[in-house]
Write a structure and sequence with these properties.
Helix 11 packs antiparallel against helix 13. The protein has 22 helices and 32 strands. The termini are far apart. Helix content is 30%, strand content 22%. The protein is α+β, with helices and mostly antiparallel strands. The strands form nine sheets. Strands 2, 20, 21, 22, 23 and 24 form a six-stranded antiparallel sheet that branches. The protein has a five-stranded antiparallel sheet with strand order 1-7-6-5-4.
């Protein structure tokens, strides 16, 4: 119970001990006090959006704002279609970032009680949270992230019940800008996250956690097929070419051609006005008109899966760019295995504002088929740990640091939408009605129906689900939902999949069927499945071939020679395509040596892609060098590496806990000349920062991003900087350092000529 309530109750108790009506009046006061703290009913003020410009044909409306919101960062909808928000109240309350450890974050329920489309009531569901960041309505409860923990609570009468700790290491270390978030339930019934390499699922009441590919930084989304999309600060849209966990079965091979691919050819933005960005002083960040050139804080991507926009917007990618006060729209090309995305309208953004406090950080598909934008509406969105002196001064002079206690949810609609939205009461639907909703043209509704069917796990659902899968008239999206619903209910059979795989067309559904069939790999099923796949490769469908080629490992256990034949045929069909060559390595986990001997016997080119990959994988296995997602990232810190704590919090989030770098975010530390070379130059990088392009191990990295220095951050002492250098040197090179704290103090005075951050060229010229 909050301290102020406890104090008031003590006064009440003392006073009414002297009177007869003590118990009645205490009850009255208790109800009044708790109600005032937990529920707020007011009118949302009218807010002008004259400073906002949206694409022709669309409208924006403020559906929730202050006083109901303070720094919202995430949104989800419950079964009744109500908005639930995560408010990170404690984030950057001033330029020094003090108070970020205060337990003032909340998860709230926002309601529209008079049905005018505007929130007029707020219920605090959970309070006293420290920098919460994500929620998901799953399993008839709420999953929420409050670092370092991931929690699940049941919901009863809009109150939390039976709180369960799902993962105490959900956000183990890392700065607030670099901690896991997202909690996206995908079509495969697994929950995925950004800035994380783990996924979660509850099965038979038990929470499961297993490795997955590392993805993005802030925000994650999916398409109707089930592929995942995300981004980093400087890359507006990244994505996987394949379904989750279909390319990482070989623990000693790390795929590079299919996961975490940049889908946009450039990162350009087109703001309406000059905006303050963290490294605005760096050449090329701003143009001659002081407008931002490329994204620097991209986040909250969304693939639109609603039904209220014109068909040309279906599965478009929307991306938040809060530093420039805008939202981008990209058209995603799904026609090839290698996905791509391009600016929808040249030089024009979907939504942009001259309001400097418009800070879109997340976008959601709504139950009504429209888009909902989470506007943090804070003046300062750059965390103190990475804030440059340039930005600190500019924010102070502009007064943006005084914009606090605000937040908004914007609803985006289209003028020509003809579909009327009727709220669906999922709790009152029977099994057959839920199955029918898998045909709905709004992805949010289909997702919710799938989850509800799995929760009920009724035998009544099996027959209608199978009818959907085998129907000639039902679309592929519905069939995929039905497949994974049966699988989530543990009612899917091998014969169901065989029937589907031997049917005509529906290649996208067959891709999922091939992936799902791996769980049925037995000696008895092997011959039948091999014959089925042989027929499928005769179709010569590139997408289908990719999933066949990547999904054979379980089956090869029982008859590797037969399945090696399939790998031979498909790897030769796509001999010059790295995507397919990597897929073959996924299927050869545990069989690398056998297959390499097979290739050598057939005189296959020793320099072919698959041969090189096999040799590298065999070498990694001999060294026990696994894909980092399978390695325990809780490295034990010994007395020589006290800088590990700081490294893990700040450096590992970009460079990787294993020092191998993070694709599209930061170069590796292993084999880096910056680590193995001069300790003083490494210290200068840590103190004053470094901007690209740079070269590491003869490879150029031009990531449109600048590493900020820690020299102006009062949280880091000379000893801290020295400890980090010692840890990095010890962990990622064979060299050590003889620097002292006095050396660090002196190096603080060795400033870049620009007065901002070092360039590689400038560092190389220094004689240190």
């Amino acid at each position: 119970m909050p301290a102020n309530i406890t104090y008031l109750l003590k006064i009440v108790d003392h006073f009414f001990n002297q009177f007869l009506n003590k118990h009645v009046l205490i009850s009255f006061f208790l109800v009044a006090i708790i109600s005032s703290c937990k529920t707020e009913t007011k009118n949302t003020p009218e807010i002008s959006l004259i400073d906002y410009k949206i694409e022709s044909g669309f409208n924006i409306q403020v559906v929730a704002s202050e006083p109901f919101l303070d720094a919202p960062v995430a949104l989800d909808f419950d079964d009744a279609g109500r908005m639930w928000t995560v408010e990170m109240n404690g984030y950057m309350q001033n330029l020094e970032g003090t108070g970020d450890d205060e337990p003032n974050g909340v998860i709230s329920i926002l309601e529209d009680t008079n049905n005018d489309g505007i929130v007029d009531k707020k219920k605090v569901f959970i309070d006293s949270l420290v920098l919460p960041r994500a929620i998901a309505h799953v399993y008839n409860g709420l999953l929420y992230a409050e670092p370092p923990n991931l929690w699940f609570v049941e919901i009863e009468n809009d109150k939390p019940k039976n709180k369960v700790l799902v993962d105490s290491l959900y956000a183990d270390g890392g700065n607030v800008e670099h901690q896991p978030n997202g909690l996206l339930m995908n079509i495969d019934n697994w929950i995925y996250n950004a800035k994380s390499h783990f996924r979660y699922q509850r099965k038979d009441g038990v929470w499961l956690k297993e490795p997955t590919a590392f993805r993005g930084q802030w925000g994650i989304t999916k398409d109707n097929f089930g592929r995942l999309f995300y981004n980093t600060n400087n890359m507006q849209l990244l994505g996987d070419y394949v379904l989750p966990n279909t390319a990482i079965e070989n623990r000693y091979f790390k795929p590079k051609a299919v996961l975490g691919q940049s889908l946009t050819p450039n990162q350009k933005v087109y703001p309406l006005h000059p905006t303050l960005v963290n490294r605005g002083y760096v050449k090329g960040v701003l143009n001659s008109d002081s407008l931002l050139v490329n994204v620097t804080s991209a986040c909250g991507p969304l693939i639109y899966r609603g039904n209220q926009f014109p068909d040309s917007y279906f599965e478009n990618a929307f991306i938040c760019v809060p530093e420039a006060n805008l939202i981008k729209r990209n058209i995603v090309n799904f026609s090839n295995v290698k996905l791509s995305a391009n600016q929808a309208i040249e030089n024009v953004e979907f939504l942009a504002a001259t309001d400097p406090s418009f800070r879109p950080v997340n976008i959601n598909n709504g139950p009504d088929g429209n888009l909902y934008v989470v506007d943090m509406h804070r003046g300062v969105i750059q965390d103190k740990a990475f804030m440059t002196p340039y930005l600190h001064k500019a924010l102070s002079e502009s007064g943006l640091d005084t914009i606090l206690k605000k937040g908004r949810i914007l609803k985006v609609t289209h003028n020509n939408s003809t579909k009327n939205y009727k709220p669906i009461k999922f709790s009152s639907l029977n099994i057959f009605e839920l199955v029918e909703l898998l045909k709905h043209d709004n992805g949010w509704v289909r997702d919710k129906a799938q989850q509800k069917l799995i929760l009920r796990s009724s035998e009544e659902a099996i027959a209608p689900l199978l009818r959907l899968i085998n129907s000639e008239t039902v679309n592929e999206i519905t069939k995929i939902h039905a497949l994974h619903t049966l699988n989530g209910m543990s009612r899917l059979t091998f014969n169901d999949l065989l029937k589907l795989l031997n049917s005509e067309d529906h290649f996208k559904v067959k891709c999922h069927a091939i992936v799902l069939a791996k769980q049925f790999a037995t000696k008895e099923n092997t011959i039948t499945f091999y014959k089925t796949l042989n027929k499928l490769i005769e179709v010569n469908n590139p997408e289908l071939d990719l999933y066949i080629l990547s999904s054979l490992n379980n089956w090869a256990t029982f008859n590797n020679s037969e399945f090696f034949n399939l790998i031979d045929a498909l790897s030769k069909r796509y001999v010059d395509n790295d995507i397919y060559q990597e897929a073959a390595l996924n299927s050869l986990a545990t069989f690398e040596t056998d297959y390499l001997k097979r290739l050598e016997k057939s005189n296959t080119n020793e320099d072919s892609s698959i041969t090189r990959n096999l040799q590298n994988t065999i070498n990694n296995k001999s060294l026990n060098k696994q894909n980092s997602i399978y390695v325990n990232n809780n490295v034990v810190t010994d007395s020589r590496t006290s800088g590990y704590r700081i490294f893990k919090q700040l450096c590992a989030t970009c460079h990787g806990i294993d020092g191998e770098g993070v694709e599209s975010l930061a170069p590796p530390l292993i084999h880096s000349e910056y680590v193995s070379g001069s300790s003083k130059k490494l210290a200068l990088v840590l103190l004053h920062g470094l901007t690209g392009p740079i070269h590491v191990n003869k490879k150029r990295f031009d990531l449109n991003i600048t590493m900020p220095g820690l020299g102006n951050n009062s949280d880091f002492t000379n000893k801290d900087i020295l400890d980090v250098i010692r840890y990095i040197k010890n962990a990622f090179s064979e060299s050590n350092t003889k620097l002292t704290e006095k050396d660090i103090e002196n190096l603080r005075k060795v400033l870049p000529s620009s007065g901002s951050v070092f360039t590689e060229e400038e560092l190389l010229k220094l004689k240190l």
